[in-house]
Each structure stands twice: as structure tokens, then as C-alpha cells.
Amino acid sequence: MISVRLFYVTTMELRYETLTFSLALNSINSNGSSLIVYGVVGLLNSWQGRNWNVKVMYSKAGVATQILISTAECDILVDVGDGTLRDLLELDHDFKRLNAIAITHGHFDHVGGLWTLLSFLRMIGRTSDLVLIAPRSCGEVKNLVKGFMSVYGETMPFQVVLRELSNEEKITIGRMEIQAFSVVHRGSTKVYGIGKRVPAVGYSIGYDKQRIVISGDTGMCQSLRKFVKGADLAILEATAKEKTIKNSEVHLSIEEATEIGKTAKEFILIHQCFR
Ligand SMILES: [Zn+2]
Question: How is 67-91 classified by DSSP, letter by letter?
């Protein structure tokens, strides 16, 4: 028997159901003992840890990804795609609790909501620092912050503190220990095809003796395997419907993400293709 928790929202309500399946979910979980939270396209995914919780507010490849992590002390966002402000407002989020934003890489579907969120925080008169965590040499994040400060710097009531992390470097926010680990990722566009490798990380986040891992966008790589193994929760991108040589350094396939996810205690698949 495997218990699967499904979470989903309509615009105004959050519903929670626990379903118990006795059917063969062997394709997802072969040992039958661990609880699997399996992401469902277009639905909200949440996870409740000991004294913290995680909400995948939205995630679709080529559109947006934003994940909210809430602890007793404060909240952080992992990625800040288009619509982040809207999603936070719909959750009635307390913006004073938002201490940091950890960005996995600079692609538009992971940073597209940054300008809007900074503008909103400026408008409502935030005064405390906001820590922006990003992979080292992430041009998009640096330039977004630089551009924003060049326009609004004189009337900014709070500091944006950019902290660039190299492979396996850590930062503490509240009581969360956030460790970046390098992953393998390339962008792709219709006209230019698959591009160069970009600075990209996943995050391993520890709190109260539990640990969650968020893959960011990545092809299959050793660092991802290493950090996901034994985690209490893994949130994994599963963009590609099938594994091909062409996409091997761009995205994980559903099959690959599931295989890695099974090495964590629970996992959620996100970032499905919008097409
Ligand atoms: Zn990407």
C-alpha cells in the first residue's frame, strides 16, 4: 500500500486529500515503503515538514517557476518566475517574512517576476534587507539588479544584498542552511537551438534536521544524484517527455527524474512542458 497525498488549489481555496492506493505504483516506487508525493501538471504541490512547509506555487517550463519555503522564523522563495507576486498575494503572504530569494539560474522562466516583486516591495515600504542568492556569474540576475537600482536606487527603502554562491557554498537564512550545488544546464531557442552551458545550481536546504533538495533546471548529473540521495524531499524538474541525446544537458526526462526521486524519501516532479 502506498499513500499518495494530492494537494490542489482553485483560485481561492486550498484543498487537501489523502488517498490510499493499493494498486501497482511500481513504476513510481519499487520498494513500496516510502510516501511519494507526485507532482500533477497544473496543480499546486505542497509538502509539510516538521516545522516548515514548501509550496510549489507554480511551475511550467518556458513559463514560470516559483517555490515558497516557510519556516517558523522566515520565508524564502526559490526562483521568482513571472506571476510570483500574484501567487504570493493569493496566498495572503506576509511580505515581512520574506528574507531571501534563491535563484537557480538566470533563464526567464525562473527570474521573470523579480522586477515586479522588487517594485512591489519598494512600493509597500519594505525596510529590511532582501538577500538575493544566485549562482556565481549569473548575468541575468546581476544585470536585473543593476538595472533596477539604476532606475530606483535613490528611492529604495531597502537593500538588495546579492550573494553569489559557487559549487557547494553555503549561506544561512533564519535557521535554514542553504547549500548550492552546480548542475548541468543549457538554454534552447527555436532559432538558435541548444545554447552554451549557463551558471546553474540546485539547492539543498536543511532545517530542523530535515533536508529538502530543489534541482533547478538540469540534465542528469552526479551532483544531483549526490544531494538528492537520502533527502526528506526532492523537488525535481521533469521537463522532457523522453530522454534524448539532444536534451541530455538541458532537462531531465520524467523517467530520469523519477529514478533520482526514488532515492529521496519523497519527491515532487515539477516544470512540465507547457506544450
Ligand atoms: Zn532553464
Answer: EEEEESS-EEEEEE-TTHHHHHHHT
